[in-house]
Each structure stands twice: as structure tokens, then as C-alpha cells.
Design a protein that fits this description.
- It contains 25 helices and six strands.
- It has about 575 residues and is mostly helical.
- The protein has two domains: about 400 residues, Na+/H+ antiporter like fold (Up-down Bundle), CATH 1.20.1530.20; about 120 residues, Rossmann fold (3-Layer(aba) Sandwich).
- It has a six-stranded parallel sheet, sandwiched between helices.
- The chain starts with a helix and ends with a helix.
Length: about 575
Amino acid sequence: MTFFGEIAVLVAIAALFGIIAYRLKQPTIIGYLLAGLVAGSLGLLNLNNSEVLRGWSEVGIALLLFLVGLEMNWQRLKETSKPALLTGLGQLIFTFGTGFAIAKLLGFSDLSSVYISIALTFSSTIVVIQLLSQKKDLGSLYGKIVVGFLLVQDFVAVMALVFLAGFENIQNHPTAWQLTAAIAASLVKGLVFIYATIYLARRVFPKILDYFGASQEILFLFSLAWGLGLAAIMASPFIGLSLEIGGFLAGLALANSITNFQIASRIKPIRDFFIMIFFISLGARLMLGGFSMWGSAFALTIFVLVGNPLIVMLIMSVLGYRSRTSFLASLTVAQISEFSLIIAAMGLRLGHINNGEASLVTAVGIATIAVSSYFIMHGETIYSFLKKWLKFFEFRGSVAEEAGEAVPYSGHVVLVGAHRMGENVVEALRAAGGTFVVVDFDPQVAEGLLKRKIPVIYGDVADEEICELAGIARAKVVISTVPDFKDSEALISYLKKENPKAKVIVTAESEWEAREFYNMGAAYAILPHFIGGMQIAQTIRDDRNFSGLAKLKEHDLFLLSRNG
């Protein structure tokens, strides 16, 4: 079969298994890995004789790391900096130590155990963000914490790649001094280039991208050339790092620009094609290498699915989070990452692990990503079943989620969400002079409200205990400005059970959601685009010269300045 024919067959198989994965609500990564299994078992892919295929895989890895750097959003980490940092680092340390001990018990060498335990520590940012986005939970309290500690994990993973790059250009049997010097040189070079990249991101690239941004084609070509070019330079003998590091730094340099979303949207389809080849190659290696470590794969899979979530739950419990928040966040680490697969491939390339051990990491990846996807999507159902046992993890009294005391009010108004739209509602409630309390899961918003002497409960309204603290069962009106269908559905259900006479106002993102809320019994469903249209229409009716826009602008600028 010609190389073109081989690629055509691989893409067809990948498309088939990608469709199957989609129908089973699985990430496409699973489809690609399974496609590789089939291709390897049928003899459709010869990894040993396909240098071109290896080159394509490397392009996919470079573009994957390029997008990781491009989407490195430090603002997300600031929102939950303490829990994200402590949970992220704590999970990495405990998982690495426990994983190393398990690997040693399974009979692996010290170096192989190090690689295996590193692979077990990282969770898939791509998979988790995609699933949380589908659930519309990225804006929830646990979602923000998860995004924060995944960011910490990604940074540590990049530093691990910098560390491993120290082995790239040394002889097979180095002395201890040569090994130490190579690793130290790699780390120093990595830190120097990271600093240089941050400088370029702040001073140089915004101007360059503003210039190229006028043409989508030129912007795309420049970004692609910059990403692959820097990856090639970093992997050259002159620099002595790796293409993975180069791809990440190239993306990081552009992350601060206003065009980063445009660049990402154009690069992703190309990344998806080349990274498909990489994952197919990994899947095929399971069959081509005659994989036989099924017992070890099962043991390590159980550790990732059960041990990793337990570690995160314990850490978040020590930090004082409620069992629901801790549990839902812990489910997101029950799989290994694309970084894990890249590090395993790098170890194989360096000769530190053999084909069977690299295949072991791949097998654990297939199993954990597949199972954890269902964990994440059905987390609320699993929590409801385990709720009474999970209360054990609230041994600190959930101090991290309580900003303010339980309210003693009756016949009051409860406002869920005080940011953006909610800010206007807060001002209206203050002007009205009645009693009200705010529920918000953003710690910065909650802190700002407390400074203004506004009663606030810090937490997620989807948690019934937060509803009890806010006195929702005694409220006369509950207003939710949070555009999350499941949270609003849970709120309406709680009120039907505990306070059926209360009026509930929720926020819908579409006409379909609004109809559903009305069918559930909502008194009113806020549709932001309807309200925006009504406001402009009212402005037109009041003043054909639009002089009222100046007042609206002044009001909005005041709110924007208050929200930072």
C-alpha cells in the first residue's frame, strides 16, 4: 500500500471510531487510540518504517503544546489561586509518590517507575474542559477550582519536559556529573527562554499581531510559522531542548494578544489532524509491541480512577470545602493526560522506557479517559448516591465556602449571582429597602459584597446546604442571574419541594430553555437578548436623537470600573 493509501485508510478508521466515540459521549482521543489498535492489529500501520508518519506526529505534538501555551490564562488561576495551587501541587506530589510505590511493587525499575508515576499525575485539560463546557459547569465554583489546578498541572508538565530535555544530547552511559550538568543546563535554558517569551509577549508580539491581524490569512500563516519554527529551533542541537517546549513557548508568547482566540480557532483543525496521527500511532503500538502487561494496566487504572479522586477530596477537605464541591472537582482527575502520553513517548525516544512500558501508559490512558468521562458527566447523580458517606470529608466544617452567617430572614429576596446583570439587581434591591441576601460562588464578588455590608453566602446554589444557609425555603422571591440550566432546574425543584409559594426568576440562554423553565413553574425567565432589545427600543421611543445613550454608557462604565 502506498503512503497516501495508508493515510487514507487511517483517516477513515479514525473517522469511524471518532463517530462511535461521539455517540458514546466519549472524547475523540479515545476514538483515535482505538483506531490505532485496529490499524495495528490488522497490520495497516508499520511504525518502524514510517519516518514521515513520525514527523507528522511531531507536528501534532508541537501544535498541541502551541495551543496549550496560547490558551494559558493566568487570570483563571487568580480567581481561585490558593485552592488551585495547593490542590494542584498537593495532588501531583501525593499521586507521584503513591504511583511510584505501586509501580515498584509491580516490579518496574526505578527509572521506569518514575516515568509511570509522572504519567499518572497529570489530568487531561482538553478532556476535562470539553466535558465541563458541555455541562456548562466551567463557571461553577468547582469548575473554577478545576481549571485553576489543571493550569498548575500544565505548567508542571512543561517543566517536566524541560527536565527531560536534559537527556536529549548526552551519551548512553553518562557519569553522574555529566547527567547533573546536562539537566541543570536544560533547566537554566528553559527558564531563560520562558522569561524571554514573557518579555516578547508583553512588548513585541502585541504590535506584530496588530499589524498582521488585518489579514486572517497572513495572521494564520505567521502564527503557524512561528509555532513550528520555534519548536524546530528549540529541538535543534544548537539549543538542545525539545520541540514540545518550543511549541509551548511559541503559544505562550502569543497568549497575551487580542488575536489569540482567532489564532486558536484557525490552528485547531490542523492540530486535530496531526495529533490524530500521533494518537493512532500510540494505539497501534499496543498491538505492534505485543502488549502483555494487562495486570499492571488494571492495577494502575484502578489507582487513577479511585486513588486520584480520593487524594483531591482529602486535600480540598483540609482546605475547608464542602463535600459536593470536593467530590465534583475530584472526579475530574480520574484520568491521565495527553501530557502523560507525550512524556511516555519522549521516554521511549530517549531509551528510558521500553515499548511495553510506553504501551502500558497508553492502555491506562484509554481506560481512564473512557471511564472518567462518564464520572464527570454524571457527577451529580453519583454524588446524590454517595452523599451521606461523603459527609465524612467535611471534617473542617466547610469553612472555605462560608462567607457570612446563615440568614435568619423570612419573606426576603434571595439573589443568586451578583456579577454583571446581578449588580443591577443588587442596586435595585438596596434602593427598594427590603431584606435580601446574595448567593455567589465567586470569592472576589463575595468579598466585595461583604465590604459593602451586603449579606452574602459564598457557595454554589446547586448545593442544598447553601440553599438552607440562604433561607431559600423561607424566601418570597428567588432571582437567579446565573445562565446555567441545571442549576436553575435544581433551584426550581428545591423550591417546589421546600417553598412552593415562592416566586422564582431564572435566566435562560435560549428560547427553548425559557419554555422549559415556564413548564417547570418559573414565574419569569430572563432572556438577556430580549431585555437588551427592549432597552434599545425604549431608548428609541423616549428620544429619537439617542441622547439617553450617554446616561446608559455612564451607568455601565461605573459597573465595569467596580468589577475591575
